[in-house]
Write a structure and sequence with these properties.
The structure holds two protein chains of two kinds.
Chain A lengths: L1 H28 L4 H6 L8 H10 L6 H13 L5 E2 L4 E2 H36 L3 H16 L2 H15 L15 H27 L2 H8 L4 H39 L4 H10 L3 H29 L1 H10 L1
Antiparallel strand pairs in A: 1-2
Helix pairs in contact in A: 1-12, 5-6, 5-8, 5-10, 6-8, 7-8, 7-10, 8-10, 10-11, 10-12, 11-12, 12-13
Chain B lengths: L2 H25 L10 E6 L14 H10 L4 E3 L6 E3 L2 E6 L5 E6 L13 H13 L15 E8 L2 E6 L6 H4 L10 H4 L18 E7 L3 E6 L20 E6 L3 H9 L5 E3 L6 H6 L3 E6 L3 E7 L9 H9 L3 H8 L29 H10 L3 E2 L5 E3 L2 E2 L1 E5 L7 H13 L4 E5 L3 H8 L7 E6 L5 H7 L23 H12 L3 H17 L3 E5 L2 E6 L3 E2 L2 E2 L5 E2 L4 E2 L3
Parallel strand pairs in B: 1-10, 1-11, 17-18
Antiparallel strand pairs in B: 2-3, 4-5, 5-7, 6-7, 8-9, 9-10, 11-21, 12-21, 13-19, 13-20, 14-15, 15-16, 22-25, 23-24
Helix pairs in contact in B: 8-10, 13-14, 14-15
Classes of the chains: A mainly alpha, B alpha+beta.
């Protein structure tokens, strides 16, 4: 087990290094750079000589390899540099934005899971065939709603028309209701879909018939026997969905005017703010790796059959 | 009780007296300003670096205008320069020496005095830059040499060449005075609003980077511009800026009572706002009009007849009636009719497709395959990048493109990321056409726009672009140099007129409309005014309900 974790952490570090290097190379290959975008901008009206001086001061035309070594050295020591566009340390930007994104993403993920379970349960408990097929088609509907449109519609209806929740200066938790819903709806769709299919599949297994023959109720069978078996694939998908969660955050934070990694990314991409982008790439990669590691470690907890396999390795 | 204590007591008494007199003056008025309340201001974009010369960017100007004072005040109605932190000034005959007498008792919000040495340090930085701290030079200060502190309240500036635009330059948004502590910080750290210490009527209280900024009133503020009606502290208790990127969300929030004032209202939303009793503020920017400019270094637009043809083939009237509103007046010159030195040249800007066709024929561009004009086998296909900060710029360029298509000329309008846009825009071969505008209420603005060592919109050789092969217009540059260094005001305005004529005769630019900065405010919001280039000043603003 310990060896397994060590090798997984090793892989994680490799992934982080690769993410850093690839993003560094790609950002270097893009036309223009942050210094050019910032200072060539008419807002400053600088002369050619003045721009050349500034470029020299930022070593914008220096050779790539020393810059790479320098930057990676700084990253290892936790120094992410300065955002050229915003004029503050990247670490300060992250401190201001990371916690709110984690909160938004965490709540949205939980809400999506609840939504998926509700859909699955309703679909299996409802007696009527027509209602059942309606509920089963909900995931397809949810996944095809654009996040952007959903956010705007929720704001227009609940904030501007009925004035239930303010978008500007809301209370700390009040302000999260609509954004969480906006992200949760599309994220819940694949989860619900997989849950529904797995439940259907598990229900056809022989042990379900045995349980029923023993006199268990439908609800009892569903909860005690089917749920456990149906959840495992959902967990796998959950790890992958994290990426979508980040993408959803970019749009949602922009629409709702929330601060967070999403809106920070949008700004940084617009201005090719390399230092900020690199930090975001590395942090996202780290989060991705950590979540997938957690998912892998959770498998044996949920499914005892996997425990013996892992045991054999360690 | 130390000196500062006595000073404080004096200012408190002064403030009380002033508020008494001003409330007496307002007593006859039905609308008496109410003190208190926090203004909720929705901005489209977060501010960037708040180094004062970067104040030209509207989100930055909207913040700096509240927290910094300037040496002089430009009356937005008359455009005259009036006293502010400087009580009086003297300029020598050839505008190479400026002496300012400062107002007594002005302090920065960190308690340090705003005296001659602070002013000297500010302009040394803005005029020369600071290489060590990476602080760049200010665009509005030309030919700066050095400063001299004559006594604690008198400062003198020397220029290498005549610099008649300097007096107005001390009043602009890029010349906000900040404390020595702020100037000692490296450029990279000036994006943190809490580090910008000014002497203005508001002080930065707190900031959530990229999302919110709170200002609070400075109670002891008694040094507003001497000639304006309102004196003493600002009426508002505070201002809260909330970054709200979505146009629809800003307008919805205003109309549903969640905000008091918003920036960037598109022309197509104006009717909705006004229909509900809310107010549109279209502040003029008094500078170079929203235009399309050419890069004559590109052989396709090197011939003046081609440029003239495109000028006469552009229907500005149609663009305004299709995309904009009455708040966007049609351009009558390269500068706005509210700009200094403006001359009405609408006779040179006629929409005349017949003339355009004739000019293109004369220049040897004849209809080829697909209806696109050709010369020596080369089609007349031009490219421009949209400029996202300008109102509906993409739609504007696309409409221009449709109008030119009727002449047999193709204009491709590209969006592109900031990097490609910036790189390609430097190369006349890639972008022979570009949208352009800049605001500043001084004739120097024309030089800022066209001179190769400033914004260089025509892309001349010797400018910031190394892609330009040969294009230089010495006559234009000579006129621009004269414009920025002619000490005689009358002569200077006359040169401004000559430049406008020359640019249009050469058809370097096709001016389209006078660009406003459009804001919207709640009906209970009173006393909003704007500096000469359309950035809001909330010093005299008050909330009738809060």
């Amino acid at each position: 087990m310990a060896r397994y974790i060590v090798s997984r952490v090793g892989q994680a570090l490799l992934v982080l290094w690769a993410a850093f290097t690839i993003s560094f190379v790609l950002l270097q290959a893009m036309p223009g750079d942050a210094v050019l975008i910032k200072f060539q901008n008419p807002e400053y009206g600088l002369s050619a000589e003045q721009i050349a001086d500034i470029r020299a001061a930022y070593d914008a035309d220096g050779s790539v390899l020393p810059q790479y070594v320098h930057t990676i050295g700084n990253f290892v020591t936790g120094d992410f540099g300065y955002s050229l566009q915003a004029g503050v340390a990247v670490s300060a930007q992250l401190a201001a934005n990371l916690p709110s994104t984690i909160r938004l993403a965490g709540l949205a993920f939980a809400a999506a899971a609840v939504l998926a379970v509700i859909i699955a349960v309703l679909s299996n408990l409802s007696g009527f065939g027509r209602l059942r097929s309606f509920i089963q088609s909900l995931p397809s509907l949810f996944v095809s709603i654009p996040t952007f449109w959903l956010g705007i519609m929720l704001i227009q209806i609940f904030s501007f028309r009925f004035r239930l929740v303010p978008v500007i200066n809301p209370g700390e938790w009040e302000g999260l209701i609509l954004p969480v819903l906006t992200i949760a709806v599309p994220i819940s769709a694949p989860m619900a879909q997989i849950l529904l299919r797995n439940i259907d599949e598990v229900l056809t297994r022989p042990f379900v018939s045995v349980a029923r023959a023993k006199g268990a109720s439908h609800a009892f069978v569903l909860w005690q026997h089917v749920a456990k078996n149906a959840f495992l694939p959902v967990l796998t998908v959950a790890g992958v969905l994290f990426g979508e969660l980040l993408a959803g955050a970019v749009i949602t934070e922009t629409v709702f005017g929330l601060n967070g990694i999403g809106s920070l990314t949008e700004q940084a991409v617009n201005f090719q703010d390399v230092a900020v982008l690199q930090a975001i790439v590395v942090i996202s990669a780290a989060a991705f790796v950590a979540i997938n590691l957690a998912v892998d470690l959770l498998y044996p907890v949920l499914d005892p059959r996997l425990k013996t396999k892992l045991g054999a390795v360690s | 009780m130390g000196i500062s204590g006595k000073f404080k007591a004096a200012t408190v008494i002064g403030a009380v007296l002033m508020s008494l007199t001003s409330s007496a003056a307002f007593a006859q008025d039905a609308a008496k300003p109410v003190q208190g309340g926090t203004l909720i201001y929705l901005e489209q974009q977060p501010h960037t670096n708040l180094y004062p010369p970067a104040g030209g960017f509207y989100p930055n100007g909207g913040v700096l205008n509240q927290i910094t004072d300037k040496l002089t005040y430009q009356n937005p109605k008359t455009l005259e320069i009036e006293p502010w932190i400087a009580e009086s000034w003297a300029v020598n005959d050839n505008a190479t020496e400026y002496t300012f007498k400062l107002r007594k008792g002005v302090t920065f919000s960190d308690g340090t005095p705003l005296d001659a040495s602070a002013v000297a340090k500010n302009f040394d930085t803005f005029g020369l830059g600071n290489k060590e701290l990476k602080q760049p030079v200010s665009e509005v200060i030309n030919n700066y040499d050095r400063s001299e502190v004559i006594d604690p309240l008198t400062v003198k500036f020397y220029f290498k060449k005549p610099s008649p635009g300097f007096l107005q330059g001390t009043s602009v948004i890029g010349s906000g005075l900040v404390s020595l502590a702020t100037l000692a910080l490296p450029f990279e750290q000036l994006g943190d609003a809490t580090k910008i210490v000014g002497s203005g009527p508001f002080v930065v209280e707190s900031e959530t980077l990229g999302k919110e900024l709170s200002l609070k009133v400075r109670e002891d503020y008694v040094w507003g511009p001497a000639k304006i009606e309102h004196q003493g502290r600002a009426y508002l208790d505070g201002i809260k800026y909330v970054i709200t990127g979505e146009d629809g969300v800003r307008i919805g929030a205003l109309l549903s009572g969640q905000a008091d004032f918003i920036r960037q209202v598109q022309a197509y939303d104006e009717a909705q706002v006004e229909g509900q009793g809310y107010k549109i503020y279209a502040a003029p920017t008094r500078g170079v009009n929203n235009s399309v400019v050419f890069r004559p270094d590109n052989p396709l637009v090197a011939d003046v007849r081609v440029r003239q043809a495109l000028l006469h083939g552009t229907n500005a009237q149609e663009i305004i009636s299709t995309l904009f509103s009455a708040n966007y007046p049609q351009a009558k010159s390269i500068v706005a009719s509210t700009a200094q030195g403006y001359v009405d040249l609408s006779a040179k800007l006629t929409f005349d497709p017949a003339q355009a066709t004739k000019l293109l024929d004369e220049a040897g561009w004849v209809a080829g395959t697909n209806g696109i004009r050709e010369k020596d086998g080369q089609p007349l296909v031009l490219t421009a990048y949209e400029s996202p900060p300008q109102p509906q710029n993409k739609a504007t360029l696309q409409l221009v493109s449709q109008q030119w298509a009727k002449l047999g000329v193709t204009l491709n309008v590209l969006a592109g990321d900031a990097g490609s846009r910036t790189v390609d825009d430097l190369d006349p071969a890639k972008t022979p056409v570009s949208p352009a505008m800049v605001g500043r209420a001084d004739p120097d603005v024309i030089k800022s726009q066209y001179y190769p060592k400033n914004r260089d919109v025509l892309r001349q050789k010797g400018g910031p672009s190394d892609k330009v092969k040969s294009f230089v217009d010495d006559k234009l540059n000579g006129l621009l140099e004269a414009l920025s260094s002619e000490p005689n005001r009358e002569k200077r305005l006359q040169i401004a007129g000559e430049v406008q004529s020359y640019v249009l005769d050469q058809a370097y630019a096709i001016p389209i409309f006078e660009e406003p900065q459009a804001y919207a405010g709640a009906p209970y919001l009173q006393g909003v005014d704007f500096e000469a280039v359309g950035r809001p000043r909330f010093y005299s603003t008050w909330l009738a309900e809060h």
